[in-house]
User: Fold these one by one.
Assistant:
Number 1:
Amino acid sequence: MSSDLPDDDPGSDFHRLEAPPEGVPTVVDTPEGMDDALAALAAGEGPVAVDAERASGYRYGQKAYLVQLRREGAGTWLIDPVPFPDLRGLDEALAPAQWVLHAATQDIPCLAELGLRPRSLFDTELGARLAGLPRVGLSAVLEYYLGYTLAKEHSAVDWSTRPLPEPWLRYAALDVELLVTLRARMERDLREQGKLEWAEQEFAALCDFTGPPGADEPDAWRRTTGIHRLRKRRSLAALRELWLTRDAIARERDVPPGRVLPDGTLLDLAQRMPGQASALASERKESSRTRQRRAEQGLLRHQRAWLSAIRTAAELADEDLPEPARRSDAPPPPRAWADRDPAAADRLTEVRAALAELSERLEIPVENLMTPDVVRRVLWTPPEDPTTEVVEQRLAELGARPWQRELVVPVLVQALQAHR
């Protein structure tokens, strides 16, 4: 790490870090360069800072186009994953090391696609939430603990660009420059607050994180925004065929599906099911000029594909039409509880107030104390005998960590026993 770091008490003056003190590393994009990176990182000491850059909004999927790593004794390495079939050799080199990431859930899925998976990790964004920081972005957390702020001008650029411009690489290297030092300061803070064991339980759970379902899931088309507006099974069939057609086009062009055709236009076609090119256009307008332009261009550019998808849906036998979405086993929206189950509504009101007080006292966001969905499931469908042991078992089945159960079970038991 740089010797320019401030003292433990940074005071009120923040230092803007514009470039890595050791300079911007050369991008590793050859087998020889990878061999050097593997040797250096394997010989390094302590945790390894890890980050990844995607081309969200520019390319199909959430593929990583740059991987940044920094470890004591090894320095910073910028890896271009595109020329390599995978990064499993790097995974083996890093296997013994704890990974330090900021907002790990954003990067773990795309790193897993490359064959990289942490065995142990420290998430500085989640750690900041548990430590009670009011702002948890990387720059804000670095300001709080180290007195440094980062330049963030290139966070939303197209990282699939080749060659990557030097200013972008400088930004990428800065993202891992101070992560290991930040981890040490944050760990000390969490220990002093009596929260380190809680954080470690959360970090251990993140090692198994897989991310949301992908486009290859059989019912991925059911996640189309606004699908609830479709009431007829034939319209659902049309949406399915249109969604699959759009996804195939997006994959081939390597662009996000929304750039081929927005969800709103897809729903409009599924509802109307036009049979000829002249009827594809609609009077419906998208929410912005950019989306409207994409809709118009997408309809025109791929009109044969849309008509073919609609025709396929129109010709399906009734028994082959998709069923309406299965009724969710999730509780109804809280606003409906008072009418449908007054006792459940009373339980929810009491628990919300108690958790808000607990959240304020511990300086931990309510959603980190316990996932709201878990709380609602237990309160809406309570066990017949809501003892501490029974409620704790139910929370464990729903994925709550031990530290969460220790804090929240008494709150739930009290409400369940008081409002039967």
Number 2:
Amino acid sequence: MNFQVTVLKILVSYPGGFAVMEDLKRDMAILATSGREWADRTKRLAARVPALDIFSQGLVERISGGWQITAKGRVVLEFIEARPAAPKPIQAPLVEEATVAIVAPVHVPPLWQPVDRAKRRRERRERARANAS
């Protein structure tokens, strides 16, 4: 999971883009245990801006017990989430004097999927056992 992108995604979901540290930590924990898809998605998004540093670039500000996304942070997040331009249609051969454009579908994984709580508990127990040994 990419920490920088995850922080931007969490903050943009809060009213005014501000979240206290307790809420940020809780949301980060939820996303970190939500499965492989979230980690893969944030890595793909982070690859679009390899030198991303949310604090030194002024994308997030530390304000009285929490963090807030800035206008610049929102712009950067929109940029990294923007879908790549759709591929140009490929002209198919004429079929009964009509042209047909073929466009490959673009698969975008959903941002959030429900998680089986029992499965999450089992995984946490297994990690705790592995760390204890």
Number 3:
Amino acid sequence: MKCHRIDEVVELLQPAWESDSDLNLLQFLAKLGQEAGFEGELKDLSDEVLIYHLKMRGSDKNEAIPGLKKDYEEDFKSALLKARGIIKE
């Protein structure tokens, strides 16, 4: 499982870092943390924060987070009826 996260971080980090290639890796990670609203020390910045921030970095602020989007329902009434089994998916 950890290898998958490492691969995902590297895959997402490479193109983003290339756009800010004047920064070293720690400076770039600190910049990503600040953009994500992380206020702790850099050593406490989790890979989950990096992954989701890099995935959502160029998107609209109101767009659903990947992973949660599959469960997203625009209409509350339809979501409730599906949850109760009245409406089949």
Number 4:
Amino acid sequence: MRISTVTMFEQGLSSLVRQQSEYLKVGQQIASGKRVVNPSDDPQAASRAISVSQSQAVNQQYDDARVSTRNALSQEESVLNSIADAIASAKTRLVQAGNGTLSDADRSSLASEIKGIYESLLGQANATDGSGRYLFGGYQDSSPPFVKDNTSGAVAYQGDEGLILQQVDASRQMPSSDNGKQIFQSVHGSAGYLAQADAGNAGTVTFTGPYVSDSTAAGFGSGFTLDFAVATDGSVTYSSDGGTTQVPYADGQSIEINGLSLTLEGTPADGDSIVVEKAQNADPDLFRTLENMIAALDTPVETDADLARLQNTLSTSSRELDNALDSVLTVRASVGARLNELDVLDAVGDNRALNYKQTLSDLIDLDYNEAISEYSLRQVGLQAAQKAFVDISSLSLFDLL
């Protein structure tokens, strides 16, 4: 078979181009450090690498979400710590106010101190994060959640009960904050019972308690209301929950109803009443508790009835402050638990990221030892092809003429 000169040149050129292409391909791999430079180099590995890269990106998003959540929770924990300290300080002032030797001026001085605590708590309740978002407003985080009425001076919650959730892992949504109602206007589920004297009471009766005396009693946990009546002969009776049965009352008497015990001292006036109920049902509000304390301490004590109202207010406020502190500490414990969980999720995420990185490396990264050997081999092949082309191209009859 006769091989034409054109055929020899075409085959030589084809061999040169192929060898040069393989040589440059290995050179690109060495330069990029990747075995798979183009999807055509290894379609299956390239496809799997895309899937692993997407998983890597999602894992990084979870990591970023955990950073954001940790910052928010750390700031909330700091604020809750300040709130707990403020409540403890208010309780200290309340105990001081119970000293019977204090004058009106002394109590007014304590009221001024509690006012400072009150304003501090209001500022903490309206704390913001670094981006101007209010921590305790729930979903309504663009405006202050606690607003003081200019007329009455009372503080009202303007936020909602929503919890902002962050997707911190594939199967975990974590609250990045807690709403103000949960912190300032609620009590822990284990909170006990609360006694409150009616603001219009004119007698001198004061109470101690209530305490649980018999948890197996019929009607236990329902609470009750005591209504006092004074007969024309001066005798005092009371009925519970609007009942018609009048029970004689005596100073220092311990009354047991629905498994709850309440000790009463002093003489009630006709129409006086005392309500005993679960703390959860008493519309808890830390700010209103402080407002009641301030008002009571600022009111001069001129009569025994004034003193009784002061003592009853302080007694109720003491339990309300204890319940408020328990509520804040419960939320703070929840924040701490979430921060610990984030640490665990970080460790899991880091391990997952390392596995993704290793898998991606196995799929597309270059083995330099193998690549350098291949590079040298391709270089020799290219040089051989070039030498063969030169030798073949010189085979011409014209050289023999």
